[in-house]
């Protein structure tokens, strides 16, 4: 069974949502038969490619949030992340920038069989260490950690080999009903918007599994059983 997650690398709910999916899968009775795959859903294409801005500045410019409002809004996310074991999880004291190249790096890593490892690494670098993941130099710090060929990664990014793939991945999410990130699809049938808690995700995994693995009753003769009208013993010849 496949679980697909569309995410933006600088979206704090995406990092937390990915963590919650992992926890739900760990608790799932058939976890060894679940494949989790991350996909790009860039939301920062309007941001400049040549510089970053602080999260505080973005919240003020885009939503008109004062310093106190920004601290309250992001503090809720940081508190929830900490309660679920993501420590540190830096949201407010971070920077944002154009993430197109980061998504192309993730697509390249995925093509090399490193999908989950690469997404985990980028989330950990950005939210755990508050390090930027936007420029070529930023991203070329990561191949060694993932066991990727450094020169091949540089060529893939400088030639923009995965730009079209990233765009098509995002279009597919929109066709499935995504209007924001994270957006999770379970077994190709259930679309879940937002960072749902792990209990809700676990219930959904069980529902999808039961629907795709129905129980077939096999006649087994006149065996004793209990029903609504009581317990009956099998008749004896």
Description:
Strands 2-1-5-6 form a four-stranded mixed beta sheet, with helices on both faces. Strands 3-4 form a two-stranded antiparallel ribbon. 35% of the residues are buried. Helix 1 (12-27) links the parallel strand 1 and strand 2 (35-40). It has helices at 12-27, 55-63, 67-83, 100-111, 115-128, 136-139, 143-146, 150-158, 163-175, 198-212; strands spanning 2-7, 35-40, 53-54, 95-96, 183-186, 190-193, 225-227, 230-232. The protein is α+β, with helices and mostly antiparallel strands. It has one domain: Glutaredoxin.
Please supply descriptive tags for the structure shown above.
single chain; 10 helices; globular; two-stranded antiparallel ribbon; Glutaredoxin
